[in-house]
Write a structure and sequence with these properties.
Layout: H1 11-16, E1 25-31, E2 65-72, H2 80-86, E3 94-104, E4 113-119, H3 123-132, E5 147-153, H4 157-171, E6 175-184
Antiparallel strand pairs: 1-2, 1-6, 3-4, 3-6, 4-5
């Protein structure tokens, strides 16, 4: 199996280019309130690095969203007119949770699991991502994997397995309403 590469694997390249991967612009589909609860005893992870302000334990209730595109070279607000143009005529009413999984931390100095709800890839979702891909950006993850971040937890395989089993049993297939498109950073 080929290792999936990501932009974080080449941090020195982006540093030399004067780009901080943690501060790139993004476009998100905001979701209405979601009631996904963690019922296991997972230990939350909170980043001590101020640049990683989003890594703060259970986050599903604070700003649930599906990222349509991350990696804009400038803040998304600087591209508002362009974003409006490429998304003209495009619509996304809801998303569906396909299953739950996780990503490992991309930071060597900070190890944790990022628990996510993988979102079913629909033609509408893929169309929105592709339209936004015409704007200047860094493809931080070559494969688009739409997801909702649920929580950042300390590394413990048993806790992770128990949590994923519980979430998949209770929420797999749940549909969530998209409330608006938001420009991040």
């Amino acid at each position: 199996m080929i290792k999936a590469l990501k932009a974080h694997d080449f941090g020195k390249v982006y540093e030399a280019l004067g780009l901080n991967l943690a501060t790139l612009g993004c476009v998100m589909a905001d979701l209405g309130p979601i009631d996904i609860e963690i019922q296991t005893t997972c230990r939350s992870h909170f980043s001590k690095n101020e640049e990683r302000f989003w890594i703060k334990g259970y986050v599903a209730d604070t700003n649930p969203h599906v990222t349509l595109l991350y990696g804009l070279i400038q803040k998304a607000n600087n591209y508002k007119w362009h974003i409006d143009q490429v998304l003209e005529g495009w619509k996304l009413d809801e998303v569906e949770i396909e299953d739950f999984g996780y990503f490992d931390s991309p930071y060597a100095d900070e190890q944790y699991y990022c628990v996510v709800a993988h979102i079913k890839v629909t033609p509408e979702l893929l169309d929105g991502h592709q339209r936004l891909s015409f704007l200047p950006h860094i493809n931080t993850f070559p494969v688009y994997t739409p997801h909702i971040t649920i929580a950042y937890i300390e590394k413990d395989e048993k806790e992770l397995t128990d949590l994923l089993d519980d979430l998949n049993e209770r929420y797999k297939g749940k549909k969530l309403k998209v409330t608006n498109i938001k420009l991040g950073k």
